[in-house]
Amino acid sequence: MLTKQRFQQTLGLCQRARLLVSGDELMKSLPHQVKLIVLANDASLRTQKQLKDKAKTYKVPVIELLSSQEIEEATSLMNRAAVGVIDEGLAKKLSTYIEK
Q: Would you tell me which CATH number, out of the four given (3.30.1330.30, 3.30.160.40, 3.40.50.12780, 3.90.105.10), belongs to the domain 3-99?
């Protein structure tokens, strides 16, 4: 199975377990709860800069592997350019797919 497919499946698992945050909730919980940000590689430059700057400030890793369409397919969340994983174990698992 491809790494990208496994990444999407794990992201879907995070959503079903209610361990994803997005939108305003992502920005509010970034300093305290978010362990990993999945940013769409086709997000607007403003969104990319804003999230990367916040993530750098709070030392949260950012992964840009999927498009917004692929994030939508994996999580069933419409029109999302970024989602945050709030579980440390699943964040580590998603990070291992990138390192391979």
A: 3.30.1330.30
